[in-house]
Specification:
CATH topology of chain A: Purple Acid Phosphatase, chain A, domain 2
Mean pLDDT of chain A: 91
Largest sheet of chain A: 7 strands, mixed
Radius of gyration of chain A: 19 Å
Oligomer: heterodimer
Number of helices of chain A: 8
Number of strands of chain B: 2
Order of helices and strands of chain A: HEEHEHHEHHEEEEHEHEEEEEEE
Structural class of chain B: alpha+beta
Strand content of chain B: 25-35%
Strand order of the largest sheet of chain A: 5-6-9-10-12-11-13
CATH superfamily of chain A: Alkaline phosphatase D (PhoD)
Number of domains of chain B: 1
Structural class of chain A: alpha/beta
Strand content of chain A: 25-35%
Strand order of the largest sheet of chain B: 1-2
Largest sheet of chain B: 2 strands, antiparallel
CATH class of chain A: Alpha Beta
Low-confidence stretches of chain A: 1-29
CATH architecture of chain A: 4-Layer Sandwich
Low-confidence stretches of chain B: 36-46
Number of helices of chain B: 2
Chain lengths: 344, 51
């Protein structure tokens, strides 16, 4: 009882007392709970976006993969590249008082377009977790893959962030014969997430009591015609995740992704889901696909952005909607997509 | 209360941290963010705990 009183008195305080408490000032104009994310940050190029991202006062930053560029089997080289990233004073200033989460993509995993076959994935996993500041006794340290889930209580509202690992277990891709890099596997062949992670994901979705469920995938989930890395190279796994989102009854689920050096919104009506499934891609933080001249994406919404960018998720709990924004240099709003979600 | 803490050889802060972990586990929470709006002109939030 005494312990409970201690907790209740702490929770009711309006000023932080515990050593690990943090305080961040937010502006009145922008009081929605905000999560920022981004991907593709080459440590050799100065990331000029940190102050702009910080200006939006996100409580959470999600690294979407390619957090450094280190195609290598030399773990010292990879570690040094993470050190370069962590020595960026603007980044160090940015991460103060923020929850930092993330996953990897191929270039920080260690092999371009690499997957299950990469021999140093276990060593690389520990280096990513070091970079993210994951504690030494965290579950993520002692299992295969960097997948994780965190639930955040924002006053009375919950947001669950489910971070996937699309590298550790991913089957080798099938090279395309034409002018595309890869072609989809035959239906049923290969995996993106692997058996263990699929089971974990199903449990995380089913057990979620959050109003919104943000699923983080380093590679694009919906866009399926470009021939680069995407879930579309494993069509049965796309179907599996769509069905899992439906059957789990997880509320307000959507995907954020990276990898492509472009930013875009994709939206798909999924059978059995009473809202459109959004895949919000934001890439890259330091460099982009400047020669991008268009590509087929049956699900695209709005204009594709190929300037450096970051993504913002602003949660309107009262109206059950998420304002998704692609922003760039000087915090310029490049594209916006607002998704309303059903109450139940 | 101090006798209680002394008996367990724990500081009050230590007690709070232990119980937070247990409560977070039961509530299936990893972070709590509490906001406090002041006259509509400012907004502050506190990350109360990080596990």
């Amino acid at each position: 009882m005494v312990l409970l009183l201690c907790i209740l008195s702490f929770l009711s305080c309006k000023t932080p007392h515990a050593q690990d408490s943090s305080v961040v000032q937010k502006s009145a104009q922008d009081s929605l709970f905000t999560i920022a994310f981004g991907s593709c940050d080459n440590q050799k190029i100065k990331n000029e976006l940190w102050p702009d991202i910080d200006g939006n006062h996100p409580a959470v930053w999600i690294w979407g993969g390619d957090n450094v560029y280190s195609d290598t089997e030399d773990m010292q080289f990879l570690e040094n590249n993470y050190k370069i990233q962590k020595q960026d004073s603007a980044y160090l200033s940015f991460i103060k008082n923020k929850i930092i989460l993330g996953t990897w993509d191929d270039h920080d995993f260690g092999a371009n377009d690499g997957g299950v076959e990469y021999p140093f994935k276990r060593e690389s996993q520990q280096l990513l977790l070091d970079f993210l500041g994951t504690s030494k006794n965290a579950t993520e340290r002692n299992r295969h893959g960097v997948y994780t889930a965190k639930t955040i209580l924002v006053n009375k509202n919950r947001v669950k962030i489910i971070v996937l690992d699309t590298r550790f277990f991913r089957t080798k891709l099938t090279k395309a014969s034409g002018n595309k890099r890869f072609q989809p596997n035959k239906y049923g062949e290969g995996t993106v997430l692997g058996v263990e992670q699929w089971q974990w994901l199903e449990n995380e979705l089913k057990s979620s009591n959050a109003q919104f469920n943000v699923i983080v995938s380093s590679i694009q989930f919906l866009s399926n015609k470009h021939g680069f890395e995407a879930w579309a190279n494993f069509p049965h796994e796309v179907e599996k995740l769509e069905k899992m989102i439906v059957s789990s009854k997880a509320r307000g689920a959507f995907i954020v992704s990276g990898d492509r050096h472009i930013a875009t919104f994709s939206s798909k009506n999924v059978s059995g889901l009473n809202y459109p499934l959004i895949d919000f891609t934001s890439s890259g933080l330091t460099h982009t696909y400047t020669t991008y001249s268009g590509e087929e994406n049956p699900y695209v919404k709005g204009e594709v952005v190929n300037d450096i960018n970051f993504g913002l998720l602003k949660f309107d709990f009262e109206n059950n909607k998420v304002i998704m924004q692609i922003r760039g240099k000087e915090n310029k709003l490049l594209q916006e997509f607002i998704q309303d979600y059903p109450r139940k | 209360m101090s006798r209680f803490f002394n008996k367990l050889n724990l500081t009050p802060n230590r007690i709070v941290i232990i119980t937070f972990e247990e409560i977070f586990k039961k509530l299936k929470l990893d972070f709590i963010i509490s906001s406090d709006e002041k006259n509509g002109s400012s907004f502050m939030y506190f990350i109360l705990s990080k596990l």
